[in-house]
Amino acid sequence: LRGRGVRVQRWRVRERLRIIDPVRRALRSRRTIQHRVYDVSVPNQVWHIDTNHKLNPWGFVFHGGVDGFSRCITYFRCCTDNRASTSLQLFQGAVEQYGLPHRVRGDAGSENIDVARFMIENRGANRGSFMVGRSVHNQRIERLWGEVNRVVSSYFKDLFLFMENTVILDSTNPLHIRAIHHVYLPRINRSVDEFRRQWNHHSLRTMENMSPLQLWTTGILQLPHCQRPLTNVLVQHGYNTHQWDAELGQINPLHDDGNHGIEHFYLHVTSLKETLKSSQYF
Known about the structure:
Elements: H1 10-20, H2 22-30, E1 46-52, E2 61-67, E3 73-79, H3 84-98, E4 103-106, H4 113-123, E5 130-132, H5 139-165, H6 174-201, H7 212-222, H8 262-280
Parallel strand pairs: 1-4, 4-5
Antiparallel strand pairs: 1-2, 2-3
């Protein structure tokens, strides 16, 4: 209407649509998203965990967890697998730093089995220690993934697609996948670390401009001592965040090659081919 030079209040438009086309208006209202009121009153009451597969065609999986009250990222890592053991190690690393949450919300994926077992063993059964539901309704972590896809994943996805379109990368070749993991996994996690720092320190307009980390810290300090998070929980060794291929370790993949890591990728593929060729002679 504005494009036609007609200015009219929104309520008038809604009122006329209700009179002129009540049937279609009713059908449209049935498809509207019903916004739910999110109610978590203290830190560590609920953690939301999930995995993100935007870079899965090249073997990369993001694992993440968010505190429901403060929106603070408790753990966030890019890995080259989606195993339950990996999710558990990352979760336990967050437990060591932030304490054990009362409940965890996740989907029914097999990668959450060990986390669910860990929560039930430490918090008890039949109390919602691990709550299972559809991933699209896990709103705190889904909101985070939207920002991750925009800020982190989109750059690497466009880069890998460019490499495939220019025949630099063959995602069906195991040597190429091994090289791309060695070169780009540290680079992705460097971006992940920077994203996590910025997210946990950015101000929230609806929370008096406090940051997620400030909200979490303030909320924990205001709790009675008996309600503060458990820290004496038996956990395994933390996840190895520096997964470098020893055979390709002669070049640091984090060094700038002036071409978004493509030159490093070329060198590593060539090195792997020469190693494979020499091993065939023996």
